[in-house]
Structures are given as C-alpha cells and as structure tokens.
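Input:
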Amino acid sequence: MSNDDEYCPVCKSSRYLNPQIRFLIEPTCYHKMCASCVDRLFGNGPSDCPVAGCGKRLRAARFRAQTFDDIAVEREVDVRKRVNKIFNRREDEFATKRQWDDYLEMVEGTTFDLVNGTKKEVEAAEKRLREYEEANKTVIERNVQRERAEALAFMAREEAEREMLRATRKAAELETEEDKRELMLSRHAQLEALSNGDPEKAERIKQNYIKRAEERRRKARLDVETAKGIREGRALVLNSMLAKAGEEEDEEEEEEWEPLGKNVSDTSKYFSLLEEYPRVDWIDGFVADQKVAAGGYDRQDWYQRSLFEAFAGLTVFLPEDEDEEAASKSLPDRTDIMVVDVPS
Amino acid sequence: MEDETYLGSTQYRYFTFTPSKLSQIRQRTNQLATQHLNESIQSAIQAGDLSDSGQDLLEREPLTAEEELKLVSYYITQSVAICDHFRTGSAVKATTLIFLQRIYLRISPLQIHPKTLLLPILYLAFKSENGVTSASWFIRTAAEAGLTITREELLTPEIDLAMNLRWAFQVLHPYRGIEGVKLELLAMQAGTYRGPAGETAPPFEGTRDRIERACGRARILLTGPALCTDVYFLYTPSQIAMAGIWVQDGGLIEYFLGVKIKDEAVRQRLLKVIRECGERHLLATKDAPNPYPGLLLRLPQNGVPISVEIPPELKKEAVRIDKKLFHLKKPLKEAKGKHPPATDTSEEERRAKKRKLEKENRDKDDVFGGGGMIKRKQ
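Output:
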C-alpha cells in the first residue's frame, strides 16, 4: 500500500495518527473513507456521500472492506458478480456451440458497457439487464437452484470421501493391532509346544497363523473395494438427484390439441339436431320396446349419427385429372404398403 | 367437420379412386398375375416337370383383365345368393360384396379363385359388422345350402384377406345417410326444420308419402343392384345416398341441397357429381353409350349387368372364363403333382429374397428403424 493511500479523505486522519484505522468503501460510488467516518455519518441511517460533487445515497450496512488495491478492479468484480447472477445460463441449455458463444459475447458486451461505458451505454446495458431479468425469471431461478444443488452434492460427495478414508484408516489400524496380537499368541503357543517337546505341533501353529494372516489381508482388501463401490454408487445417486434439480419447472407451453385437426370445428355446418323429428315408424317402434329403452338406447344418438353420415364426405370431390390427384392424396401409410398376394 | 372426418377414413385413403386410376389398377393386377403365371410355367419347363413342349403353353391366349372383371362380377352375384341364404341383413351383405370387390382389385383370379374365398369373406364380413360370430354355426348354415367347408378352410385365408383389405374392415355404407336425409326432409315438410343458424326452410311442396317412397326405393336400390357397380370406389357414401334418392325423385334432392348448401358453385358441382353417379352407374343400361370408353369399370356396357339375380348371359360368360382359367393353370397343377419341391422352394426362396430386399429398402428410410413386419403363418 502506498503512502498517500494512508489517510481518510473525509476526516484526514491517517494511519500515522491512528494505526488501527480501517478503510471502507460503499459499492454505489466506491469512495473510500475510514470506519469512524462511516459510523459518524451513516450511523443514524442513510445519508449522502460526503465527497464533494458525489452526493450518492449510502447506507452503513453496505460498507465493506476493499479487497483489491485498485478501485477499478474492485468495481468491475462487483459488476461481474451482479451480471453473472442474472445471466446464469449454462452451455448445455444451448443447442449449438455457436449459440452459446453468441450468448457469452452478449454477456461480455453488457458487462463491458457497465464497467467502461459512457453514461448512455451504461443506461442501455442496465435496460438490457432488467429486460432479460424480467423475461427469464424462471430460468434464472432454476439455474440458481441447480447451482445450489450442485454445491450441496459436491459437499456431500467430499464428506462421503472423507468418511470413507477415515473408515479405511481405522480398519487398517485395527487390522495391524489384530495382526500383532495374533503373532504374539502364536509365538507363545509355538514356544509352549516346543517346550513340551512337540516340534510338529509348533510347525502346525505357525502354518495356521500364516494362513489366517493371509485371510485377514484378503478380507481387508475386499472391504476397501466394497467401500469404493458404495462411494461410487452414492455418487451416482447424487448425480441423478442433481439432474432432477433443474427439471421440476421445466415445462413448455403445449399447443392446444384439436382432435379433428387444426381449426376444424366439432359442430356441423349442415345441420343442428332438433329436439323432435317427425315420426319414423321403425325407429319409434324400436325405442318403444322396453328391452331397448332399458338398455339406454338414445334416439338422439341415432338422429345424430344418421345426419352425420348423410353429410360426411358430401363435398369431397375427386380431382378430375391425375396430376392433381397425386398432389391431393397424402402418401400411403406403412400398412398400405404391406400387401402380400395369396399363394395359389 | 363431416368432410374432415371422412378424409381420415380408410375408405377414402385406400379405396377411393378416379375412374381411370381404378381401371389402371385392374389392368396392372392382371398383367402382374399373367406374368407371374408364365414365370412359374417357365421354371416348371426348365425343371422338366411338364410333359408338353413348353413353348405353346406360354403362347396360349392369356386371361384378360376384362374377363377377370366379369368373373368376379359373376361371383358377386353368387355371393348375393349366399348372403340371402344366410339371411344376413343389408349391412353384412353390402360389406361382403364390397370386401370381395376390394380384394379382387389387387389380386387376380389367376392367383386364387374367387369361388374358394366367398365363404371366408362372408364370415369376415359377419365378424366386422356383428362382432363375434360362431364358426360352427356358420359352417352348419353353409352346409344347409349345400356348401361344405371345413373350419381350417374357413379360417386359414383370413389373414391374407385382412392383409389384402389393408386391415380396413370398416366399410362406410350410404344407408344411414338415407335415413338422415329422410329425417331432415320430413322435418322440412312438417315445418319444424331449423338450420344450424336457426333458419327455416322454404315450404316443401309434396306429401310425406313422396319422401318416404323415394327414400324407401333408394334403400332398395342401394342394398341391391348398386352393390354390383363401382360406386363405392368412385364416390363418397353421402354422395351415393343422395344419388340413390335422386334417381327416384330428382326434385327432392335439388330442394334438399338448395336448403342445405348455400354456396351456389359447390351446390352445382355436387349436383353434377350426383347426377353422374346416378346416370352413369345406378341407372346404366346396356344400350346407353359408354361414358368411360376404354376403362375397366363394372358397367353394363362392359358386359357386367347390374342385377342381384344371376343374369344368364353373365353366367354363360363366367362358365367359359372359368374353363379358360382352369386350362391356363392346369399345367402348373400337373407339374406340382410330379415334382413339387423343386418349383415350390425356388419360388418361395425368390419371394423371400424379394421380400427381404423390399423390407431392407423400406427400413432404410424408416424413422423408427423398421423391422415391423408381421410374420405370416405358413
């Protein structure tokens, strides 16, 4: 830190007079002042910046220590933080590399305008930022959540890893201890056997010990492998949780489905069903039958169906020449192609 | 709404054609079948299965498309008689006849004789119209008329029939449409008619009797002789219904359409189509000039009378064609008896190869990866 930075521009007290002096800035105008000035000026609520010609409204709570020596860098970092909070899309949201690059360029352009632009450019950039935020609220929120989920998952993974290492270390310690104990026991037993004048028994005990030690080692190796497997499995589960984190709100607006095709109404332009039609002998006789009526036969349905069939395809005219026909009829379906002749 | 629904139907998509297209399909079917027969004979000659010298077998007069048409038409009238024996009712009868027409549109009597398919088609029509039908009842009823058929013979062709119908089992008939027109006309006559916008109809001159008579006769026409014509391939069911009534009482339909269709140009065009359907098909006679010269359509001018009774001249013709067909296929039958595996397997192999090739070609541009072919029972 150079010497001329060492005094507060507001109260002119310097590090020489007050070695405990702390310098703070407020990210609205980035004018530096000492902690006691901040207390004095802004302790009773928001007030104007004391630097001549600035007059920005500052708040005590927003004052913080400067991280970077250069105030321009400090400001740029703040701007980038803010911009990245809003422009938080990810590469996998874009179909092509080109689109992603264009997006990055747009973000960088906005940031540059905010940091280095003239007043007009800054205003335009602010406006762009606001509009984007309005338009993409859900996407932004989703990405924030994703980020949070990722951080959580990362922490959980780290924790699991540490746990695993601890467990293996502990297992190894236990194993060494066990090994030592066994070795001692076996030696005692061997000595006892020898003192009893039975070298064969001593040899047997020795072999037995070697075998068991081998077995223990194999088991330990197996344990480590199982732990690894569990760890990997856990990582997989976490990843899948992560993938789900963003999806919940990922719904597109669906087009309204019309069963008869686009813009085809489901009411007829030829007829409207009357309440009552003049008597038709057979249908009236039919409906009068108790067995039929009990089954729920509805005369209106029959009217509807008859009238529908009277008009279905009425104004479908076949084209008169062949070219027109080829154009008007759609391609055959798959079932249409499958005709196998009957063996004679 | 009505037109869009109709445009989605299989009847429109697979079985509606212009007259020239219809005739073209029939010609093509005949050509393919003839070619197929000749190839089979040729391979039989090469295999040495034929006693005659081969060449004159190949130079015999082939079965023409016109003869095929007559033969199938004869079996349509036969089918009517069978339906009458079964007391099927008009819907099943009409469906049977239309199935028969549709099946012999793309296969030829040279491949399989219509005689063998009449009962399976009727059974299929029963099932399409009425739902489950007992096969043993069917076989019993057929036996009463002197037609013997085993269960296997009845059921085996079904899958091939279904395939040739392109799995389109629904036939849209004009009968309910006639009832609809009748309802509206009766309401107009009684003065209770209200259109979709609440408008009333101009006063109807005539009695209730006039309407009922015309509609009743139209129904008789359409459930009978009309089924022996090509109208189902050429017109939509509602147009056929209108034409059926128009034939009985032209003024009635003109009045009706005057109320229903406000657009003058559309109405005139529709009336033209209805008149054409009525005059050229439903009312066609042998003496009238042929409205479709050179085309293969079921018209009296082409020797296909429209009648549900079996016309004697058609019968005579059918017997002659049947004989010819028998002689054409005779050498193949002999060859098969002598040395069946040779021709059969090579033929099967060739077909299997062709099918596989076709399938591969199709699968290439299938977004779903293809492979969805139904295995046939052999």
